[in-house]
Amino acid sequence: MCILPACGPGPGRRSSGPFPRPLRLGCFPNLTHAQALVGSRSGSFERAAGVPIAWTFFNAGPSAVEALFAGAIDAAYLGPNPAINGHITSSGRSFVIIAGAAGGGAALRLRDCADE
């Protein structure tokens, strides 16, 4: 599962584009994150995104979630439990769960309750 924090340039700041610096992407250096590892080694993510990527490797989901909350990384591959915990902790304001990353993997879909 890939996670993006809800982010922007912030008050009083202007951005020169979607990412004026390298995209800071987190993942785990193990088989469960094979797609991220292949992308980091081959450079295919940088070519596809058109921006440089600064990779950060974590040993566990909670440390990646902490890095997202601290603004140390822009996005991360996470398992479903850390993703759900981060989403709940931020009341859905700091995390955007964008996709399941593995075929046959788990995904979380939330309905928008704002209209209720």
Descriptive overview:
This protein has a single domain (2-6, 22-99), classed as Periplasmic binding protein-like II (D-Maltodextrin-Binding Protein, domain 2), CATH 3.40.190.10. It has helices at residues 34-42, 44-49, 61-70, 80-89; strands spanning 2-5, 23-27, 53-57, 75-77, 95-99. With 116 residues, it is an alpha/beta fold. The protein starts with a strand and ends in a 17-residue tail after the last strand. The chain is globular, with a radius of gyration of 15 Å. Strands 3-2-4-1-5 form a five-stranded mixed beta sheet, with helices on both faces.
Structural class determined from secondary elements: alpha/beta
Low-confidence sequence ranges: 3-15
Report the end-to-end length measured between terminal Cα atoms. 28 Å
Nearest-angstrom radius of gyration? 15 Å
Task: Based on the coordinates given, report the CATH architecture.
Answer: 3-Layer(aba) Sandwich
Average pLDDT value? 76
| Domain tally | 1
- Helix count, per DSSP? 4
Helix share of residues?
Answer: 25-40%
Sheet having the most strands: 5 strands, mixed
Order of SSEs: EEHHEHEHE
Sheet with most strands: strand arrangement: 3-2-4-1-5
Strand content: 15-25%
Number of strands: 5
CATH topology: D-Maltodextrin-Binding Protein, domain 2
| CATH class identity | Alpha Beta
In one word, what is the shape? Answer: globular
CATH superfamily: Periplasmic binding protein-like II
